[in-house]
Design a protein that fits this description.
With 607 residues, the protein is an alpha/beta fold. 28% of the residues lie in helices and 23% in strands. The two termini are 23 Å apart. The structure holds adenosine-5'-triphosphate (ATP) and magnesium ion (MG).
Length: 607
């Protein structure tokens, strides 16, 4: 990164290799000792059959797994990521993905992808495909085939019959409203349903009828017979099956009844041999029910459920319902709008998957929900892009400059490294011509501006063009309305990579592109989607907190010639502007569109 405070003495670029060699020579022994110690600790863990990826302190789930493996409670670890295909994945899901897949890989186990598709009303194949793509993009591969809760519908139905046969489930005819009234409250016990003691044979018959589509929606449910006075409301005869006369995205019209989340989840875990079923805190109160099913059904395994705190980020929302509303009401241009906290939005914006993984790894896995500062996420994005983004120049508000002492038609090929300390990224060509563009914000006619305040081009003074010549602004050419048309300027000869002669003191360094050899492009600048840290707080509608200036479209931008070859394998730092990435929706062959991924500095921190 460089900026206008850069020292004026132009030092030809030198790679920092020699510096590294020096440091290595000086500290070789100390480094060897550190590496040896690290290997020793890895070996003692490896002796327990656990391969740790690093020596960081372990979170509580890692500690549980390490102990279970050590004590032979489980032979190997199996986790799963269980999204409901009713929307796109968001940054909160990334925490769960990194945790589940991360634990499996850290402890040499496996992680399944299982769609929790028990509700035909909101679930679609579009979401299934998008979720698979997002998990892969984030850098994870599930073990074997994709699983679906709907794969287990026949088995779950058999288990429902099993509960009826063992007197632990009954068909209830209370309306939804009455079911709620009978359930009681946190402070009062519930009341038994009048259908609770229905004879076994009748229960079997009615369940069969529900399944065959002979009963109207809402008329009956299958409920577990547990305890209407249980302190935990989830144990007050929870619903196992509801009638829904809806086609399912995978099973079509095969079923007229669908299992509840609770009746499907633990059994799905058991069928897949999941050992550690990790979910968010809102399921903590469901754990006794999860265990009740496992204890009362002939399941092939006994998984255990553990809960951790959800990830919430300020200045955004991580609720699929709210994200869907933003899409449906066209506040954004789709689930993958670059302002959305969805993984597809972040991808389109140019956030590298590595940055998301590093961010998720930095988060506490705790027993409390928390809100993480957006700036923490942005830190990981900048960190990754600073190391990996190709440098380029792009003029966002072009002002033409005619260099009167450069011959017409002349093209001088200048160059610059694609990255200041990454040899492997190569060099870039910068054709230098008589007409160039600079940013109109980098020029002022006001000659009284102090050098300290305005380190850019002022009439009659000099600046260095990045990786090129020192120039002087000689004349401003205006139209009849007094609008600036272009500048006449002149180069100081022999200043590419060299200091200018005594007496010529450039005010700063600015970026530029050749006017005849550049790429016309559009640049989309983004601000946060919400202007309030917690959208919708204090009884406001979250939509009222949308930042009206979250998108600025700049047409007519001029990029350096190499940007014509931009593709999705490459992230860019537009020098002095920020990090940018080719947009996947609006770019065309002759006009690339670049999304601003993030600015160079955190502008919000300043308040
Ligand atoms: P939403 O509230 O956005 O609709 P959800 O929990 O209903 O999310 P699922 O598709 O059921 O979405 O979530 C799949 C997995 O991801 C679950 O295990 C869930 O606990 C986890 N998850 C969802 N949101 C978060 C979050 N904000 N932080 C961490 N994990 C999450
Ligand atoms: Mg859910």
């Amino acid at each position: 990164m460089w900026n206008e405070n850069e020292k004026m003495v132009f030092v030809p670029y030198r790679r920092p290799r020699q510096v590294c060699a020096l440091v290595l020579a000086l500290y070789k022994d100390a480094l060897i000792a550190i590496i040896a110690g690290f290997h020793a600790s890895r070996h003692s863990l490896a002796a327990h059959g656990i391969l740790m990826e690093d020596a960081k302190p372990q979170n509580f789930i890692q500690q549980i797994i390490a102990k279970d493996l050590d004590q032979g409670v489980v032979k190997s670890v199996v986790t799963r990521f269980p999204p409901e295909p009713n929307g796109y994945l968001h940054i909160g899901h990334a925490k769960s993905i990194c945790l589940n897949f991360g634990l499996a890989s850290q402890f040499g186990g496996r992680c399944n992808l299982r769609f929790d598709d028990t509700n035909p009303e909101k679930e679609e194949d579009e979401y299934v495909r998008a979720i698979e793509a997002d998990v892969n993009w984030l850098g994870f591969q599930w073990s074997g085939d994709v699983h679906y809760a709907s794969d287990y519908f026949p088995q779950l139905y058999d288990w429902a019959v099993h509960l009826v046969n063992t007197g632990k489930a009954y068909v209830c005819e209370l309306s939804a409203e009455d079911t709620r009234l009978y359930r009681g409250t946190l402070t009062e016990p519930g009341k038994n349903s009048p259908y609770r003691e229905r004879p076994l044979a009748e229960n079997l018959q009615l369940l069969e009828k529900m399944r065959n589509g002979e009963i109207e929606e809402g008329k009956m449910t299958l409920r577990a017979k547990i305890d209407m006075a249980a302190a935990n409301i989830n144990l007050r005869d929870p619903v196992l099956y509801r009638i829904k006369r809806k086609a399912h995205h995978r099973t079509g019209d095969a079923w007229n009844i669908y299992p509840s989340y609770d009746f499907a989840h633990g059994q799905g875990d058991a069928l897949e041999g999941v050992t550690h079923s990790i979910c968010t805190l809102e399921f903590e109160d469901h754990r006794p029910l999860y265990e009740w099913f496992l204890d009362n059904l002939p399941v092939p395994a006994k998984p255990r459920q553990y809960e951790f705190g959800r990830l919430n980020l300020n200045y955004t929302v991580t609720s699929k319902r709210k994200l869907r509303q933003l899409v449906d009401e066209e506040h954004v241009d789709g689930w993958d709008d670059p302002r959305m906290p969805t993984l597809s939005g972040l991808r389109r914006r140019g956030v590298p998957p590595e940055a998301i993984r590093h961010f998720c790894d930095s988060l506490a896995v705790a027993k409390t929900d928390g809100t993480v500062d957006m700036a923490q996420f942005e830190h990981f994005i900048r960190d990754d892009l600073n190391n990996n983004a190709h440098r380029a120049m792009c003029v966002l508000h072009p002002l033409k400059v005619v260099l009167t002492n450069v011959a017409e038609g002349q093209v001088e090929m200048l160059g610059a490294p694609a990255h200041p300390n990454r040899d492997d990224l190569g060099d870039r060509a910068l054709p230098f011509t008589r007409e160039i563009y600079i940013d109109s914000n980098d020029f002022s006619e006001d000659t009284s501006l102090s050098r300290k305040k305005f380190k850019r081009l002022v009439l009659g003074e000099w600046v260095r063009l990045r990786s090129a010549y020192v120039i002087r602004a000689d004349e401003v050419v205006k139209d009849a309305n007094g609008e600036i048309l272009y500048l006449n300027a002149s180069i100081v000869p022999d200043t590419v990579g060299e200091n200018p002669p005594e007496g010529i003191n450039p005010r700063g360094v600015i970026h530029w592109v050749s006017a005849s050899q550049c790429v016309d492009c559009e640049v989309r600048l983004y601000d946060r989607l919400f202007s309030e840290p917690s959208p919708g707080a204090a009884g406001r509608d979250f939509l009222d907190d949308i930042n009206p200036a979250s998108l600025t479209i700049l047409t007519g931008c001029k990029g350096e010639i190499g940007l014509g070859n931009a593709d999705h394998s490459r992230h860019y730092q537009f020098e002095r502007e920020g990090y940018f990435y080719l947009d996947s929706r609006y770019s065309s062959a002759d006009k690339p569109v670049f999304n601003e991924t993030i600015g160079l500095k955190d502008n919000w921190a300043k308040g």
